[in-house]
Structures are given as structure tokens and as C-alpha cells.
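Data follows
____________
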Amino acid sequence: MIKAALFDLDGVVLDTERQYTNFWGGQMRRYHPEIPGLEHKIKGMTLDQVFDAYFYGQPERREAITHALDDFERTMTFSYIPGFEAFVAQLKNLDIRTAVVTSSNLPKMKSVYKKLPELPRHFDRILTSEDFARSKPHPDCYLRAAATFGAEPSACVGFEDSVNGLKAVRAAGMYAVALTTTNGRDVVQPLSDRVVDDFTQLNVNELLHAACCQP
């Protein structure tokens, strides 16, 4: 029996991935032009992990990017992925616990809450980068979310859009649903049990049955 539904934030709950791809694409072309497409490789990583991996020992660049990101997030638009609100309401009606599992930090979430003050009401828990030591593709964040609800990983469904996120869900031993908001079907299909464009393509009861009955 499925007990919990665990959602990544950007590109899954919120239609923001293209905005972040544009932001990080600009930063990486400026600071790391020798690594094409780096903005895609960092998806699912926390800001600290990005800095440690690509800006180690570069405090001035880290500070400049942090300020640019803060300014960018204050002007971002935050809207829900089509069908999300109705989908999560159906889960709650069935007593399925819900959580956000995001690599975003608390300062970023404050920007989200200012524009979408109702967002926390959709979830029983919101886990941010401050809640786990290792981020995606490590499964720690999803295992932490499952433990929060006293649920076995096999009793959870994880919703992701990034390669690192889907790897984390799979590594945690959960049923993986991929959204094509960031990557094409050819990219996410091998890492997922189900692929959809958005939540309007999901039937809650059918999904829970499929996830519960997976081999």
C-alpha cells in the first residue's frame, strides 16, 4: 500500500526549471565556458555542492553568483505545473502523506512563500537542503522523507524531472514518476517507472495501484 507521495519542487510542483536553466546557463558560460551544458549537469545539486564542485577556493565568484541568484529569485515567476493542485488534493483525500524534497535552501523558499503563500498547505512536510547532508543523486533526501512518515521506501512514490533526482528516487527503492518539464522522454524513460508531461496525464487511483503492484 502506498503511504507517501514525495515531490521535487522545481520542474515538478513549480514550472520554474526553464528559468533556472537560463540563469545557470548564463553563469556557467561566463565562468566555465570550457564545460558546455554544465547548467544541466548541476540539476538536483544544492548551491553549496555546486560551489564546492565548480567554484572551490573562489570566494569572489561564489559571492557574485549568490547575489545574482538572490536578485533573480526575487523576480522569478512561480506557477504550478498543470494539474498539480488537483492531483495533490486527491492524494490528501485518500490520506496519502505528501512532502516536498528539494535541493533548494530556506532563503529561496522564502521567496516562493511570498508569491505562493498557500504552497505549504499542500504538503505535510517540506524538506530543503538544510535537512540532509548529501543531495541528489544520493537517496538520502528521499529516505529521510520516507522516515519522516514512518513509511518504507517501497511504499512511496517519488516525482522528479531531473536525471539526478530520478537516480535518487530509484536508489531509494521508490516508484519513480518522471515529468518531461526539463528533459525529453528519451532521457528520463530509462530512469523511471512512468513518464508524463504534467499531472493532467495522471489518474491518482491508477497510479497508486501501479506503484503498489510493481515487482
